[in-house]
């Protein structure tokens, strides 16, 4: 079932630091997509990036990584985003997967910056929609409370609920439904353990093929 839905698709994955290191989604999600029949997968992760950073070339705050197909990922300590319009023109993907949420959460602040977050998501989704490319947005995992990021389960829920209703025409994958709060291990509150990234990568692939917009690509 999974293989038939993804068979032959060219997929572009962009996002934040969850795509930025060995063993993160740049490996686990990409490997799952390729194993399930995707023809080509190109992942670009820029640490600290927010959605609007992908509209123009914007330097990352803490490096990033890139991976093409089955080649090993290439980690870069200095990296800028590549504008989404440029990536779409070069890759001509059937599907774009955006992995972003934690960099929009305003963790540590009293109030979730909803207006700013809306401007961020709308800018990126409009740019993808203008290219008439199917899109899926993956929300943040629970992580663990505290740490240097001041993440809280309540704020993660708030971010996820916001994204669920504000990323159209992209379809939404709610990561909070994949595990219980605290079930997936974390190394620093925000980034997950290798085992958890394996589970997340598989769960995203499984959720992807259930989405009407993704199924439609094969019709």
TrEMBL record:
<dbReference type="GO" id="GO:0016788">
    <property type="term" value="F:hydrolase activity, acting on ester bonds"/>
</dbReference>
<protein>
    <submittedName>
        <fullName>Cell division protein FtsQ</fullName>
    </submittedName>
</protein>
<keyword id="KW-0131">Cell cycle</keyword>
<dbReference type="InterPro" id="IPR036514">
    <property type="entry name" value="SGNH_hydro_sf"/>
</dbReference>
<dbReference type="GO" id="GO:0051301">
    <property type="term" value="P:cell division"/>
</dbReference>
<keyword id="KW-0132">Cell division</keyword>
